[in-house]
Amino acid sequence: MRRVSLCVQGVICMVFLVAAQGCNTDLTGLGDGSQSDLDPSETSGGVSGGSGPHIESDGQVVVEAEHFTDEGSDWTGAFGAMVELDSRNWILQESAASGPAPDPDGFHSGASGDAYMECLPDTRVTHDDPMDPGSFYDDGTGGAWLSYDIDFQTTGMYYVWARAYSTGTEDNGLHVGVDGVLADAGRRMQWCGANEWRWSSAQRDTGGTSCGVNGTITIQIDRPGLHEITFYQREDGFEFDRFLLTTNAAYTPQGAGPRESDRTNP
Ligand SMILES: [Ca+2]
Ligand SMILES: [Ca+2]
Ligand SMILES: [Ca+2]
User: Fold this and answer.
1) Strands 239-246 and 156-165
2) What DSSP string runs through 126-160?
3) Distance between Cα 213 and ligand 2 center (Å)
4) CA 40, CA 61: separation in Å to the nearest integer?
5) CA 127–ligand 3 middle distance (angstroms)
6) I need a labelling partner for 29 at 20 to 30 A (CA). Which of 87, 103, 150, 236 fits?
7) Residue 159, Cβ neighbours under 10 Å: how many?
8) How far does residue 130's CA lie from ligand 2's centre (Å)?
9) Of the bound ligands, which one is closest to the alpha carbon of residue 92?
């Protein structure tokens, strides 16, 4: 009797131990929200709610282009209406193309959040079209821009990836800078491969090709805290879905990429 009793106690004790271990494992699996808890193969995009700066965590931040903090064009009141006629603006595109014409390639579905920003009007579509004032800014100074406030936790060099839809050779360039400074490493971001949403971190003419090679567009964050990331027009008609900054040289976003990063006011 005594031996059976011990045996029963042992079984009961073991059951409780197993239950306790399972509970502990589950709690650990909830994670602390760090990047190591995220699935690196995330490909379906998706937007975060809330407002305020997006939060960089563990060397990565993802932001929808349509969630900009501020925007502007090359128009300035000092030069009056003549210059305003030449300007381009970043226009929100959702479910259908919306002004100002011309926008020869129309609307493209498949953007994360079902929304993107487009630099319009788009007058220079082919290489044979005239380079109208406002249609092209090779070095990143003077064109329409979009800026994004980001709360950085991690300092260092970031690879800049952006997702865009190009339909030709004259709507596939962009520039990126930090805190109002456009460094050479952020100039002439380039896309090749038309008629699909595609990620790039390539600088034009790197690697011996006009398309460039990925990993050559970078920015430097030297101190933690708030920084302003700004994308500047290179070519009109550029269609801009979202961007991703990462300190990981080996990371290449797939599909629509990871879900958008959280914001400071969730
Ligand atoms: Ca278009
Ligand atoms: Ca164009
Ligand atoms: Ca988007």
Assistant:
1) antiparallel
2) STTS---TTSB-TTSSSS-EEEEEEEESS-EEEEE
3) 22
4) 13
5) 28
6) 150
7) 21
8) 10
9) 3
> Residue 144: what are its φ and ψ, rounded to 5°?
-65, 150
Dist. CA 63 → ligand 3 center (Å): 8
Distances (CA, A) of 239 to 91, 105, 164, 208: 9, 10, 5, 26
Q: Structure tokens of 160?
A: 């800049």
Q: Are strands 89-93 and 189-190 parallel, antiparallel or unpaired?
A: unpaired
CA of 114 to the centre of ligand 3 (A): 6
User: Which amino acid is located at 162 in the chain?
Assistant: A
Six token digits for residue 153: 């936790």
d(CA 221, CA 47): 24
Q: Locate 187 and state its tokens.
A: 């100039």
Nearest to 46 by CA among 262, 264, 239, 265: 262
The total of other beta-carbon atoms located within 10 Å of residue 234's CB is: 24
Each of the 266 residues of the chain gets a pLDDT tens digit; together they read: 333 333 333 333 333 333 333 333 333 333 333 444 445 568 999 999 999 999 999 999 999 999 999 998 854 444 444 445 568 999 999 999 887 899 999 999 999 999 999 999 999 999 999 888 889 999 888 899 999 999 999 999 999 999 999 999 999 999 999 999 999 999 999 999 889 999 999 999 999 999 999 999 999 999 999 999 999 999 999 999 999 999 999 999 999 999 999 999 99
Q: Which ligand is nearest to the CA of 240?
A: 3
- Is 43-265 a domain of CATH 1.10.1060.10? no
Q: Please give the distance, rounded to the nearest whole angstrom, from the Cα atom of residue 96 to the centre of ligand 1.
A: 9
